[in-house]
Every structure is written in C-alpha cells, then in structure tokens.
Design a protein that fits this description.
The structure is a homodimer. By secondary structure, chain A is of the alpha+beta class. Helix content of chain A is 22%, strand content 25%. In chain A, strands 2, 3, 4, 5, 6, 7 and 8 form a 7-stranded mixed beta sheet that branches. The relative contact order of chain A is 0.15. The interface between A and B is medium-sized, with 32 and 32 residues.
Chain lengths: 263, 263
DNA sequence: AAAATAGTGTCTCTCAGACAATATGTC
DNA sequence: GACATATTGTCTGAGAGACACTATTTT
C-alpha cells in the first residue's frame, strides 16, 4: 500500500479543511480534554462550539492533533491552556488519561483516534475563543442531557463526534475517583474549608445524593491521614459561624473510601 | 510539512524491517495486549520473545499495528487470537482497554503510540510462535521482577520498550477490578467452584495476602445478588469434601466490594 | 434575640475478620 | 479410622449513617 501526504500544515483549522482521507494510510491521533470544574455549585465542563464542518454548530471538547515529539499528557495540558488563554495550568490542577476512542467511523472525514483526558481544576478562567471555534463556555454537565442521573433536560446542546460518550465516561471516572482518592481538593482553591470540600462532593455526586451529612463528612475526611492540614485563620462568614481553613497534605488515597450512596 | 510513505506492507515483520522514521510525519498506532490467566496457581502473562531489533531477545507483549478500518478492541482481540492460534477468543473472555502509552522516545525507531488492553481468560492454550517472534510463553508475573510486591527475583527476563510499566499497570488494574467487579469468573472455566474462585483472588492478590479465609470469602461472594448461580452436581474431590458447582449469573458489580487487605 | 452555618458527641446497625464446629469426600 | 477440604455458624470490633446538641458568626 502506498500513500502520500501533501497537506501543508500551517494551523489546525487549515489542516482540518484540507483533510482528504485518501492522503493517509494510517490513523491520525488527537487528544481531547474533559476539563471539569465547579462553577456556581455545579460540575461543569468546557466545550467549544464548532465553526467548521463536520458538526458545525455543535459543541465539542477542546482538543487537537498531537505534535510529533510531544508527550500525550503535555498535549492535553497544552490544549486546555490554549483554550483558556493561560500560559500553563494553575498549580494543583490534576490531569489524567481517561481512555482512547478509536471507532473507525467516529470522525466522518478519516480515521481519527483520540486519547481523552480528564482535568480537574479550580478557578479556571472563562475560555477564549480560538481561531477554530466560534465560541467556548463552561456547561454544567447536568444541562447536557447525558444519561448521568440528572433527569431530563430541555434544550440540551448537540454534541459533536462521540463526545457525549467521552464526557459521560469522564464524569463517571470523576465520581468514582472522589471515592477513594484525595483529588476533590484539586477542585477548590487553597486554602479551603471542609464545607467547600463537601460541596465538591455534592456537586459531583448530585445525581445520586442531594445532600451529605456535614458531620459525618467532616469525621471521615479528617480521619484520612495527612490529607487536610489545618491552616491559619478562618474563611469569611457566609452568614453563620466561619469555617476553619485547611490546605491539602500529601495523602493521595482515602482509606477507607468515602463511598457514594448506592441507590 | 510534507512526507511520503513508500513501504510495501506485506506483513508485520517486513513492515517493521523497512521502518524509516523519515517516512512519517505522524505517529503510528499499535495495540498491545496484557493477556492474563491463572496457570499453576499463578497469575501469568503472555509474552513473546523478540526476534528482531530493537530489543532483540527481550520479551514483549503481543501486539501490532491497527488496521485502517479496524476497531481498537477488535485489533486487541485479533492480536491475542493470532498469538494463541485461535480463531476467536473463548466465550467468557473479558477484554478492556487499559491505557495509551505515547512517550515520544518509547520506541527508538519512530513515534509509536500504543493502546494497551487487558484480557482475562481461562484455559488459553500455549502460544504458537509467530513469524516475528522467536518464541512465546506464559510468564508468572511474580517472576518478572516488576515492583508488584512479590519480592526480589533471580533471572528476571529483560522486557522490551515500556512493557514493564504496561504489565505493572495491567496487574494493578486487575487487582483493583477484582474488588468491585465480578470479573474473577472470567479466569475460571464454567462451571466452577467457590474454592476455585477464591484461588483466583489469592493468585491475583498474592503479594498482599497469602491466604484468604475460606468461610468469609464464601459468605461474601454468595451475598452478591445474581453472581453465583448454583449448577448441578459437584466437582471431583481433590482429597476432601467435593465442592458445589456454580455458573456466573448476570451480576457485574460486587456491592459491597470485596476489599483487599490493606497493609 | 433569631437565623444561619460550623463543629462535636452519641447511638445503632451492618459487616468484615477471626475462628470454632460440622459435613463429606479420599487414603 | 486419619486426613483433607468444603461448608456452616458464632463472636467481636470498626465504621457508616442518623441525628441531637453546642459554638460562632451575621442581621
């Protein structure tokens, strides 16, 4: 089998526009990022509105091609940084690989295999619109009409490619990781309070449990060795007794796990 | 950037031999398979001895290039079937994606991104040597000298590429999956006995717990709804009271989980 | 003082681990 | 019978969920 590539790659938008499946005899590789944060008490994901075909006008995960000498993790971080206009992601941001999606027909143009990442961060700025995207914004995952236990949704946006599945998998990974890892602290700016941390769990697990018992939550997180390290002072009052401040210690694993309520 | 591929792809061995990094401007994509089974009471992985450079003489995971119109899962199943000389994998075999490894220098020839899979199976035959492999065999993972809690090993084989890391990740995934999923039954031929199932756990978790309490194990697996369905008859005696036979029911999740002992 | 939120203490029930006792096969 | 293995039964301690109560702030 012989194949030729003749694309002049000056930028992602141009590259996509010039795409011709006949040019290639092997898959292209991209990274896509499920960037999650808590905004207004809701677990939210960053999506960009597509300005070009295919799926023009649909919403997609930020992502793009992996450069030839670039590590996959670096590519994921770079894509999110570009989309949010940051030089680099804030300290404490967590990045992990989710899965790789490679169904032959997932992109109508040609074979594209995408390595998906999940990123947890606090305080990411509003996204900046890139050259290849009409607009970008944070979407509460509850509003996406995915089958994540939030119930029916009016006016759910149309999602491009197989990104609905990727987001679903990313949310499920997040829900499950909060049970046995200390990553909830990646969602809050430091220092933080225990009630803030509890609201991370409530937002992430919202579909299965409306509210957690504050006292049991406190008992369990404080029982984890070297997770919550007491800091100086208290948070500003929000109408009641101000909460003590903590910073994250070195613990990575919650043992015994903080299990979600089973239905 | 312009690039040309001129390889005539007549087979994997020839393809590898003709590899010239200058031919390509994008990564190649392969699948690698961590095929696990219990042999002689030990968790074992299928490895092939490399007959060509690089890493000639080292042991590697079975794997190969993803065909242009082939789904990733299918490619992984195909690679294992080829290596074991089967038309298709036995019923009950479990296949799941592990992770994707894409460090730019992980293959000294050119950029190769590999999607790794874990496969759990009972009763896979001895492997057949392929054209590209001098030989192939099942290796107890305890003998590989990985840092998996088995202690030091004499004469550990040299492992190719980053396959030591991939195997480590695959074993860790397996250990963890047995806690909350019913996949242990994928390791035993059906019908099976509860002691057989227990030995799957013992082999997989061997590094952390020598023996499990048979009565507690029995109580917990039988408490899982629709996992163990009683079958007719008993197993042949192995010197004591014969064990009852069961087949796997529809359950996929163990709740509450069967936790490994924490150190 | 009333309301709101944070933090402490206590009770109960479930369940995992330890282990004793019984059942059923082979030698 | 002795022995080996499977199966059943019992006890105990740790921990999760429920919830009553106290503490500290704003209004």
């Amino acid at each position: 089998m012989t194949a030729r590539t003749t694309s002049r790659r000056t930028g992602e938008a141009e590259f996509l526009a010039e795409y011709d499946p006949a040019d290639f005899d092997r898959p292209s590789v991209t990274v896509d990022v499920v960037a999650l944060t808590i905004r207004a008490g809701q677990l939210s994901v960053l999506l960009v509105k597509r300005g070009a075909h295919p799926f023009k006008g649909s919403w997609a995960l930020p992502g793009g091609f992996v450069a030839m000498e670039e590590d996959l993790d670096d590519a994921a971080g770079r894509e999110l940084a570009e989309e949010t206009g940051l030089d680099r992601l804030p300290a404490g941001t967590h990045l992990e690989q989710l899965a790789t999606y490679g169904r032959p027909d997932r992109d109508p143009r040609t074979r594209v295999i995408t390595v998906a990442y999940v990123i947890f961060a606090a305080d990411l700025p509003e996204p900046v619109a890139g050259t290849d995207a009409a607009s970008a914004r944070w979407w509460p995952v509850a509003d996406l009409g995915l089958d994540l236990g939030y119930g029916d949704v009016e006016d759910a946006p149309s999602l491009a490619f197989d990104h609905a599945q990727i987001i679903r998998d990313g949310v499920e990974r997040t829900r499950s990781k909060l049970e046995y890892s200390t990553l909830a602290t990646a969602f809050v700016p430091s220092p933080f309070t225990i009630p803030e941390l509890r609201r991370v769990y409530e937002a992430t697990w919202a579909a299965t449990s409306e509210e957690m018992d504050a006292s049991n939550f406190r008992r369990k997180v404080l029982a984890v060795d070297d997770w919550l390290v007491e800091a100086e002072g208290t948070a500003d009052s929000t109408g009641g007794r101000p909460a003590r401040l903590y910073v994250a210690g070195g613990a990575t694993r919650i043992v015994p796990p903080l299990e979600r309520p089973r239905e």
